[in-house]
Amino acid sequence: MLKVTAIGIGIVLLLWVAKAGAFNLFRSKPYPEVFFEGELLAVAEAIKAHDIDRAKALAEKLPEIDAPGNEHFTLLAFAVADTNISAIKMLMALGADPATKFGEGEGGTVCCLLCHVAQNDRCT
To answer: Which residue among 20, 100, 106, 107 is least crowded, i.e. fewest CB within 10 A of its CB?
Structure first.
Protein backbone atom coordinates (compact mmCIF):
# COMPACT_ATOMS: atom_id res chain seq x y z
CA MET A 1 0.00 0.00 0.00
CA LEU A 2 2.82 2.42 0.89
CA LYS A 3 4.56 1.64 -2.41
CA VAL A 4 1.36 2.39 -4.39
CA THR A 5 0.90 5.68 -2.52
CA ALA A 6 4.53 6.68 -3.22
CA ILE A 7 4.10 5.91 -6.92
CA GLY A 8 0.87 7.93 -7.00
CA ILE A 9 2.55 10.90 -5.34
CA GLY A 10 5.44 10.59 -7.79
CA ILE A 11 3.09 10.69 -10.76
CA VAL A 12 1.25 13.72 -9.38
CA LEU A 13 4.57 15.53 -8.82
CA LEU A 14 5.76 14.64 -12.31
CA LEU A 15 2.56 16.03 -13.85
CA TRP A 16 2.81 19.18 -11.74
CA VAL A 17 6.45 19.72 -12.77
CA ALA A 18 5.53 19.23 -16.44
CA LYS A 19 2.64 21.72 -16.19
CA ALA A 20 4.86 24.23 -14.40
CA GLY A 21 7.24 24.14 -17.35
CA ALA A 22 10.18 22.66 -15.47
CA PHE A 23 11.04 20.63 -18.55
CA ASN A 24 11.80 23.94 -20.26
CA LEU A 25 15.12 23.78 -18.41
CA PHE A 26 16.48 22.16 -21.55
CA ARG A 27 15.24 24.95 -23.81
CA SER A 28 16.56 28.47 -23.97
CA LYS A 29 14.34 31.44 -23.20
CA PRO A 30 12.27 33.18 -24.46
CA TYR A 31 9.60 30.59 -25.25
CA PRO A 32 7.50 31.51 -28.31
CA GLU A 33 4.30 29.94 -26.94
CA VAL A 34 4.40 32.24 -23.92
CA PHE A 35 4.16 35.39 -26.00
CA PHE A 36 2.32 34.43 -29.20
CA GLU A 37 -0.60 32.54 -30.74
CA GLY A 38 -1.65 31.76 -34.30
CA GLU A 39 0.29 33.39 -37.14
CA LEU A 40 2.57 35.27 -34.75
CA LEU A 41 3.45 32.02 -32.97
CA ALA A 42 4.45 30.40 -36.26
CA VAL A 43 6.81 33.30 -37.02
CA ALA A 44 8.25 33.29 -33.49
CA GLU A 45 8.87 29.53 -33.65
CA ALA A 46 10.74 29.97 -36.93
CA ILE A 47 12.77 32.80 -35.36
CA LYS A 48 13.57 30.61 -32.36
CA ALA A 49 14.67 27.80 -34.70
CA HIS A 50 16.89 30.33 -36.56
CA ASP A 51 15.00 29.50 -39.78
CA ILE A 52 15.09 33.07 -41.06
CA ASP A 53 13.84 32.23 -44.56
CA ARG A 54 10.72 30.57 -43.14
CA ALA A 55 10.25 33.34 -40.59
CA LYS A 56 10.47 35.95 -43.35
CA ALA A 57 8.00 34.11 -45.58
CA LEU A 58 5.53 33.88 -42.70
CA ALA A 59 6.11 37.45 -41.50
CA GLU A 60 5.51 38.87 -44.98
CA LYS A 61 1.96 37.46 -44.81
CA LEU A 62 1.15 39.23 -41.54
CA PRO A 63 -1.23 42.19 -41.82
CA GLU A 64 0.84 44.13 -39.24
CA ILE A 65 4.51 43.36 -38.50
CA ASP A 66 4.32 45.15 -35.14
CA ALA A 67 1.13 43.36 -34.03
CA PRO A 68 1.36 42.63 -30.30
CA GLY A 69 1.10 39.13 -28.95
CA ASN A 70 0.48 38.14 -25.34
CA GLU A 71 1.71 40.73 -22.84
CA HIS A 72 1.92 43.13 -25.80
CA PHE A 73 5.21 41.53 -26.93
CA THR A 74 6.10 42.13 -30.59
CA LEU A 75 8.09 39.83 -32.87
CA LEU A 76 10.93 42.35 -32.87
CA ALA A 77 11.00 42.39 -29.06
CA PHE A 78 11.03 38.58 -29.14
CA ALA A 79 13.97 38.52 -31.59
CA VAL A 80 15.89 41.01 -29.41
CA ALA A 81 15.18 38.99 -26.25
CA ASP A 82 16.40 35.90 -28.14
CA THR A 83 19.51 37.86 -29.27
CA ASN A 84 18.81 36.69 -32.82
CA ILE A 85 20.59 39.28 -34.95
CA SER A 86 19.47 37.77 -38.27
CA ALA A 87 15.83 37.89 -37.17
CA ILE A 88 16.20 41.47 -35.91
CA LYS A 89 17.60 42.56 -39.28
CA MET A 90 14.90 40.66 -41.20
CA LEU A 91 12.04 42.11 -39.12
CA MET A 92 13.39 45.65 -39.39
CA ALA A 93 13.78 45.21 -43.16
CA LEU A 94 10.07 44.29 -43.22
CA GLY A 95 9.25 47.51 -41.38
CA ALA A 96 9.22 46.50 -37.70
CA ASP A 97 9.54 49.64 -35.59
CA PRO A 98 12.03 49.55 -32.70
CA ALA A 99 10.13 52.45 -31.08
CA THR A 100 6.99 50.30 -30.71
CA LYS A 101 5.98 49.92 -27.08
CA PHE A 102 5.54 46.48 -25.56
CA GLY A 103 4.70 45.15 -22.13
CA GLU A 104 1.91 45.95 -19.71
CA GLY A 105 1.11 49.48 -18.54
CA GLU A 106 3.75 51.98 -19.56
CA GLY A 107 5.88 49.20 -21.03
CA GLY A 108 9.08 49.95 -22.83
CA THR A 109 10.34 50.10 -26.38
CA VAL A 110 12.32 47.55 -28.29
CA CYS A 111 15.21 50.03 -28.26
CA CYS A 112 15.19 49.93 -24.44
CA LEU A 113 15.09 46.14 -24.49
CA LEU A 114 18.01 46.04 -26.92
CA CYS A 115 20.07 48.25 -24.62
CA HIS A 116 19.15 46.04 -21.64
CA VAL A 117 20.10 42.84 -23.50
CA ALA A 118 23.36 44.37 -24.71
CA GLN A 119 24.22 45.52 -21.18
CA ASN A 120 23.53 42.04 -19.74
CA ASP A 121 25.60 40.34 -22.44
CA ARG A 122 28.48 42.65 -21.66
CA CYS A 123 28.21 42.04 -17.93
CA THR A 124 28.00 38.23 -18.08
So the answer is: 106
